[in-house]
What does this fold into?
Amino acid sequence: MNWYAIKAIYLSELHRSWRTPLQSIASPVLSTSLYFIVFGSAIGSAMTEIGGVSYGAFIIPGLIMLMVLTESTSNASFGIYMPKWSGAIYEVLSAPVSAFEIVVGYVGAAATKSIILAMLILLTAKLFVDYSILHPLWMMLFLVLTCVTFSMLGFILGVVADGFEKLQVIPLMVVTPLAFLGGTFYSISMLPEFWQKVTLFNPVVYLVSGFRWSFYGTADVSMTLSLVMISTFLIMFMLFIWWIFKTGYKVKV
Amino acid sequence: MENHIIDVRNLSKKYPSGFHALKQVNLQIKRGEIFALLGPNGAGKTTLISIICGLVNVDEGQVVVGGYDVVKQYRQARKQIGLVPQELAIDVFAFVWNTMVFSRGVFGKPRDDAYLEEILKALSLWDKRHAKIQFLSGGMKRRVLIAKALAHEPEVLFLDEPTAGVDVELRRDMWRLVEKLRQRGTTIILTTHYIEEAEEIADRIGIINHGEILLVENKQDLMKKLGRKQLILQLQHPITQLPDELNGFVLQLGENGKTLTYDYVDNQPTNHVTEVLAAIHRSGIELSDVQTKQSTLEQIFVSLVEDAR
It folds into this structure.
């Protein structure tokens, strides 16, 4: 195992984020805080409790998930797409590193950044809403799994994309709508019965539900099912990345 | 320790577009030499380098670097290679020092600030170590690429068109560094369009065209074998036609009637310089000056590539 290479990729990717603190850190924290102010404090005060949890507290896990999903995908995709676009990828591809080490470096850094952001948002939320975390270890497990899984998705998008526009299509046109419709702002039990069934096809529902369970002990779907779903995505994306490196698809000719 | 640091055997590459970039290429690079690979655009130079460095997949054949197969033992093989690409392919938002630390790490070497400092100083980059690459000139960016390629102390350094579009100062710095690296025992393989550079610094020359190696020779041998010479005679008095004594020799009379030129190949039986000079003496032509000119590597290269067409 080339540990020096993993460390080099990982640290260089983290440096990249710290080079633009406003865009990488302040912006997602600020925009999520705006949701807390608008939906949590302003509108939330007029809403009834959901499952015994105040509306402001109810949306915290969902908002964190929303931010983590979009940040993980866009950050990881950008991380690998930029060197591909500039040609600087030649260095990593000609280095004595395995595909596994490359992925650990890039995906690890993107996931770390998302986890740090999630922690910052949790701290910021304390300023607006009172909340507690019932199962902190499960919360961390769900958070880490989600960050890693969606950083992998981002990595795949970055490898496959052949333009800046395509890089943004999945995070903006797929991940964000699914996150909004995945129970971020509501419990799916509040939907009409037909839409409750439809919404079960939205993979984000399982992520938000499991994550929310770790906070308040209540969930739209069972915690085990959530865990199975997130693990399934993780394995799916891992296999896809393995295939990319095995075939050299969009990486080597 | 084997004599050849790079051993390319029957290497072929066909791109998905159908372009046959390399056809059964065989090439051995000696440890510690400076090897210049010459060839027109699209000849296969970059494909060959890219395969050796692991950037392009092998279709057929084998490449061994320092005794290690570049596919099966890619880690050991790649550790020995440093590559300076043709394009200015670099993360322009990174800082010079950070990018150096990255390069060394990604090639599996523990951090060594003293060594990185030495490289940066050798390339006149030390003052720019805290600069963002974006704000460096094109020549400076190329220096950074060279520094990055050397960051992990490679045994073999590939310079793909290193002096394309760089100023005289950088070129001088670079050749000074190449000389220093050679003294340390680093093998250097360069492709260049500036053939006079190859002529000046290379030990051996390889010429590639249409994916085939046309020849590999010691520079001196190549110049001797294929180098044409010209004997130029300045006449004291202009003549309008060649005197009878010079019949039988292929001589060109200059337009002003004051120069005679004789083409010959050194050390060849067709070399009749003595006979030409004796015939001129017999004809009574008086000379004011005698010059010889040797054809450059560039002329040799052009004639070889044209012959192969």
